[in-house]
């Protein structure tokens, strides 16, 4: 009997990407709404992408179908 294939969680696939070195990159929250009351420096920091924390790495990889 064939083993069931694991499907990619599509909403996770749109939010995360895996680099060649295996890092998982994500965007910051709170960056797109109500930006008028946020400082310019805060918005600049929120624009940057960052790496997913080590605690969440296994969970995200599973959602992406990589593990």
TrEMBL record:
<dbReference type="InterPro" id="IPR021137">
    <property type="entry name" value="Ribosomal_bL35-like"/>
</dbReference>
<keyword id="KW-0689">Ribosomal protein</keyword>
<dbReference type="Pfam" id="PF01632">
    <property type="entry name" value="Ribosomal_L35p"/>
</dbReference>
<dbReference type="InterPro" id="IPR001706">
    <property type="entry name" value="Ribosomal_bL35"/>
</dbReference>
<protein>
    <recommendedName>
        <fullName>Large ribosomal subunit protein bL35</fullName>
    </recommendedName>
</protein>
<comment type="similarity">
    <text>Belongs to the bacterial ribosomal protein bL35 family.</text>
</comment>
<dbReference type="InterPro" id="IPR037229">
    <property type="entry name" value="Ribosomal_bL35_sf"/>
</dbReference>
<dbReference type="GO" id="GO:0005840">
    <property type="term" value="C:ribosome"/>
</dbReference>
<keyword id="KW-0687">Ribonucleoprotein</keyword>
